TrEMBL record:
It comes from the Bacteria. GO terms for molecular function: metal ion binding. It comes from Rubricella aquisinus. It is found in: Cell envelope. Keywords: Metal-binding, Signal, Transport. GO terms for biological process: metal ion transport. This is Zinc transport system substrate-binding protein. InterPro entries: Bact_metal-bind_prot9, ZnuA-like.
Length: 291
């Protein structure tokens, strides 16, 4: 009996030793990368509510506690989720996924505004939505792979295979962006929000943004501002990060602008994932540019 029990314990030892790594992410694309790379070896937490903007979300005590208990905390860097610089988080767990590509970050002008009843906030002087350029996302995925590998004592083959699958998805997205650049590079577009800097660079597009709430109908002053920008740029396409009200689509259509939904994916989409949603958005954008 004792011998049988010892054999059973020995057989169970690898499973007991390799507990799932606890990973927390401040932006959904980083959670997608961790899930894709780590698979069943990781337990990924992305606690931002569906109706919140991860860039400006402020976690409650319970959410901060979840981050503090993580083995790996994936940061976006570039000033995204600046609460992480003020909270007490374990240094050993922190991974800044853009630390190796700071020379490729895009500097912007700070813009202060508010959405509805929310407090005013500023879009930082560094563009933060890196993952909208699949090549930048690849660098972040590489950093995620390295962070998970460094913290795990086993399962490297699983991590390598997951990393290869994530890389394949990002390579396909890069090809889509490069195809847009080859056919429509230099085209001028307008956008409802200043979040497309990295996508614009990847596809060689020139995007001028206003700062509208996607769930609101623009007022007369906003339409006048947009009309002036449309006349200055000659743009024929308006990018939206969320589906706007029909009245908003009609208002910009009256200016000769075609609305194209390109989610910025900071938060988890209702359907699909980072790769499928961005692929669909790039396909829509390519089709609109070809018209």
């Amino acid at each position: 009996m004792i011998r049988a029990l010892m054999i059973a314990l020995l057989l169970a030892a690898p499973a007991m030793a390799q507990e799932r790594l606890k990973v927390s992410a401040v932006a959904y694309p980083l959670a997608w990368m961790a899930e894709g790379i780590g698979g069943d070896l990781v337990e990924v937490t992305f606690p931002v509510p569906a109706d919140a903007d991860p860039a400006f979300w402020r976690p409650n005590i319970a959410a901060i506690a979840a981050f503090q208990q993580s083995d790996v905390i994936l940061l976006n860097g570039a000033g995204f989720a600046d609460w992480t610089a003020k909270a007490s988080l374990p240094r050993r767990a922190l991974t800044d996924t853009s630390a190796g590509i700071t020379d490729r970050l895009i500097e912007t002008e700070a813009i202060t505004h508010s959405h509805g009843d929310d407090d005013p906030h500023s879009h930082a002087a560094t563009a933060t939505f890196l993952w909208l350029d699949p090549a930048m996302a690849q660098a972040q995925a590489d950093a995620v792979h390295h962070a998970l590998s460094r913290r795990m004592s086993a399962g490297q083959e699983t991590l390598d295979a997951g990393h290869a699958e994530v890389t394949a998805s990002l390579t396909a997205l890069t090809a889509q962006a490069e195809a847009i650049a080859a056919s429509h590079g230099g085209t001028r577009l307008l956008a409802s929000h200043p979040r497309y800097q990295y996508l614009a660079r990847a596809a060689r597009l020139e995007v001028t943004a206003v700062s509208w709430a996607s769930d609101a109908v623009p007022d007369a002053d906003q339409i006048a501002e947009l009309s002036a920008l449309q006349q200055q740029t000659g743009a024929a396409i308006m990018l939206w990060e969320e589906t706007p009200p029909d009245a908003a689509i009609e208002a910009v259509a009256a200016l000769g602008l075609t609305s194209v939904l390109v989610p910025t994916l900071a938060n988890r989409p209702e359907t699909g994932d980072y790769a499928t949603v961005l692929a669909e958005a790039l396909a829509r954008l390519s089709a609109a540019l070809a018209e």
